Amino acid sequence: MSNVGLLLFSSCYHAGALEHRSACTDHPRRRRPEGVGSIYKHLVVVGGGFAGTKTTRALEHTLPPNWRLTLISQDNFITFNPLLPEVVGASILPGHVIAPYRQMIQRGDVCMAQVTEIDTVNRMVHYIGEGAGTIHYDQLVLSCGTNANLDIVKGMGDHALPLKTLGDALFLRNRIISRLEQAQLQPQPHCSALLTFGFAAFGKIRHCNTNRAPVSGSSLSRPFTS
């Protein structure tokens, strides 16, 4: 696992940095009047993953002065997905895999909302947050990414849990802790059944017990006896 990536995202995060704003708020240095005949232009980036964030950070330093820049994302932070398994195993704290957009984007606006419709005729992005609203654009960048597809393998949607977001990682960690607690109360062989997990990645499935599971040897499993 890359220590550089961990240090990069850790340096961008501090306690209290996650501002739970659902309204589309403007950065004071980039607020510009809009309307018909306005000389100012608006570039909107939809999606705050690696592509959307990198695009926004690159454009904020290259756009002409009469251009306004807005990033729309369902969260107000970016998640470093490769480190999510470490969160599941409690090897690192959840705050170490996220970085707030408002600390990364200095000259753009951040809108934490869900896009529901894009009107290409009138150049309007419709969104919902605490309430519904619209944002006019002159240029639009779509970098929405994908959701975890549990239908790739038959039956996976009914029995498997995704690992795509920070919320997924915390839910999985709590589920594993619950299994470890249950196993403490069960004799063999029931204990082994509770500590057996299946993993699916890149279309392949393998089964392993806790001796090979990501939580083995981590701070998550150390308090439990074997």
Net shape: elongated
Instruction: Give me the CATH architecture of the largest domain, please.
Output: 3-Layer(bba) Sandwich
First-last Cα distance:
27 Å
CATH class of the largest domain: Alpha Beta
Order of secondary-structure elements: HEEHEEHEHEEEEEHHHEE
Strand order of the largest sheet: 1-6-3-2-10
In terms of per-residue confidence, which ranges show pLDDT below 50 for 5 or more consecutive residues?
Answer: 1-23, 25-33, 202-216
Tell me the Rg in angstroms: 22 Å
Supply the number of helical segments: 7
Taken together, the total number of domains comes to 2
Question: What is the beta-strand fraction?
Answer: 25-35%
**In percent, how helical is the residue content?**
10-25%
Q: Mind telling me the CATH superfamily name of the largest domain?
A: FAD/NAD(P)-binding domain
Describe the structure.
- The chain has a 5-stranded mixed beta sheet with strand order 1-6-3-2-10, covered by helices on one side. The chain has a 3-stranded antiparallel beta sheet with strand order 7-8-9, with no helix packed on it.
- It starts with a helix and ends in a 17-residue tail after the last strand.
- It contains 7 helices and 12 strands.
- The chain has helices at residues 3-11, 50-59, 84-88, 101-104, 156-159, 166-184, 190-194; strands at 24-25, 41-46, 67-73, 77-79, 98-100, 109-112, 114-119, 124-128, 132-136, 139-142, 196-201, 204-209.
